[in-house]
């Protein structure tokens, strides 16, 4: 999943607004700095998922039996490997 810089910036504004509106955080920095950190976190998470996706696809391509992307077998194996990767990386 790729998001444009504008969409990530928009998400950082929404997240900060929700955090402030629910009194979940106390502001110790300028809001701009907090939004930048939220944005960096979103980018880091998206990159991690891109890496996970790449690793899973390589694993599926390495099978001696050709597994067609989009087939039920491919979907089941992809989800299985995805859950394994998420657990390894602490995404769950």
- Give the count of structural domains: 1
Average of pLDDT:
92
Count of strand segments: 0
Q: Structural class from helices and strands?
A: mainly alpha
| H/E series | HHH
Percent helix: over 70%
Written description of the protein model:
This protein has 92 residues and is mainly α. It has one domain (5-89). Helix content is 72%, strand content 0%. It has helices spanning 5-21, 31-61, 72-89. Helix 1 crosses helix 2 and helix 2 (31-61) packs across helix 3 (72-89). The longest helix is centred in the middle third of the chain and has 31 residues, at 31-61. The model has no long low-confidence stretch (mean pLDDT 92).
Task: Give a short synopsis of this structure.
The protein has helices spanning 5-21, 31-61, 72-89.
Topology, pairings included?
Layout: H1 5-21, H2 31-61, H3 72-89
Descriptive keywords:
92 residues, mainly alpha, 3 helices, 72% helix, elongated
């Amino acid at each position: 999943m790729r998001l444009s810089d504008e969409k990530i910036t928009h998400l950082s504004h929404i997240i900060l607004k929700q955090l402030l509106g629910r009194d979940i955080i106390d502001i110790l920095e300028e809001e701009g700095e907090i939004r930048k950190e939220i944005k960096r976190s979103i980018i880091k998470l998206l990159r991690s998922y891109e890496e996970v996706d790449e690793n899973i696809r390589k694993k599926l391509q390495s099978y001696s039996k050709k597994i067609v992307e989009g087939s039920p077998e491919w979907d089941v194996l992809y989800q299985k490997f995805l859950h394994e990767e998420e657990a390894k990386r602490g995404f769950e």
